[in-house]
Write a structure and sequence with these properties.
This protein is of the alpha/beta class. The chain contains 8 helices and 7 strands; from the N terminus they run E-H-E-H-E-H-E-H-E-H-E-H-H-H-E. Helix 1 links the parallel strand 1 and strand 2. The protein binds nicotinamide-adenine-dinucleotide (NAD). Nicotinamide-adenine-dinucleotide binds next to helix 1, strand 5 and helix 6.
């Protein structure tokens, strides 16, 4: 029997086989979960649909998290098909490339609002719909953050502010749904070469620095983030909520 046998999970944030959310989907399937996968738009659909099929995902649904209507449609389908939900994975972020290079002072009102909406508020929007489906089931929610939400990294700019908001949202949400037995946690992953990371100026420099300075003297892999997500969404973490859990080869503990 797998760690998630009998559990029903919805996973937001797969764009391709490098996505953190894809490694999580594979791990969850391996551990016996039934999974629904969403994709942001038609552009990513052509990559996501074959991936979903390859692991036998139970459902594949479109969802741009800027749309409350699309979010409601996804959870309506999940409720109708499954009658409830155990796990929500939020692995989504976006800021325009222009905002992810140079001085933070150049941040625009539109760029700030969009990064916040897609990268932070979307967790709240998804949880509004997920929480009623998790009633009485002890649900678990996991989102992805980065150390740039706590410390300053070159070029991370408005995404750092959005991650700070996301991490605070995790704590407020954990308190809001805790009485219903629902847990909410974040994983703070070290740098990983994905589509989202390619948008951050100087990404290779950050990854190189981590490799030299992290206690484990290496970068992490997507499957290591998936392992932590598996733990947080399984009964093994039944007493853990409101946490930001680092999976970064220990980089965050280093001062100098
Ligand atoms: P990725 O590009 O594979 O995933 C980002 C996902 O966000 C994509 O699937 C994209 O389609 C989705 N998305 C963007 N706008 C959306 C919208 N409007 N509606 C719905 N979906 C939308 O890259 P990733 O690195 O796997 O990123 C996943 C999460 O992990 C992000 O929150 C990212 O900030 C976080 N993270 C990444 C790293 C890293 O180094 N790659 C490190 C720490 C945290």
């Amino acid at each position: 029997m797998g760690l998630l046998t009998g559990k029903k999970a919805v996973i937001f944030g797969i764009a391709n086989e490098k996505s953190i959310a894809w490694a999580i989907a594979e791990a969850f399937k391996r551990e016996g979960a039934e999974i629904a996968i969403t994709y942001a738009n038609d552009m990513v659909a052509k990559r996501v649909l074959p991936l979903a099929e390859s692991i036998g995902a139970e459902m594949v649904l479109p969802c741009d998290v800027r749309s409350d209507g699309e979010i409601a449609a996804v959870f309506g389908r999940l409720g109708a098909a499954w009658g409830g939900l155990d796990i929500l994975v939020h692995s989504i972020a976006f800021a325009s490339k222009e905002e992810l290079k140079g001085s933070f002072l150049k941040t625009t009102r539109e760029g700030f609002a969009m990064a916040m909406d897609i990268s932070a508020y979307s967790l709240v929007a998804l949880m509004k719909e997920a929480a009623p489906l998790m009633q009485g089931r002890g649900g678990s929610v996991v989102t992805m953050t980065y150390y740039g939400g706590q410390k300053v990294f070159p070029n991370y700019n408005v995404m750092g502010v959005a991650k700070a908001a996301l991490e605070a949202s995790v704590r407020y949400l954990a308190e809001a749904v805790g009485p219903d037995g629902i847990r909410v946690n974040a994983i703070s992953a070290g740098p990983l070469k994905t589509l989202a990371a390619a948008g951050v100026g100087g990404f290779n420099q950050i990854a190189g620095h981590v490799e030299k300075r992290a206690p484990l003297r290496r970068n992490i892999g997507q499957e290591e983030v998936a392992g932590a997500a598996l733990y947080l969404c399984s009964p093994l973490a039944s007493g853990v909520t409101g946490e930001v859990h680092f999976v970064d080869a220990g980089y965050n503990i280093i001062g100098l």
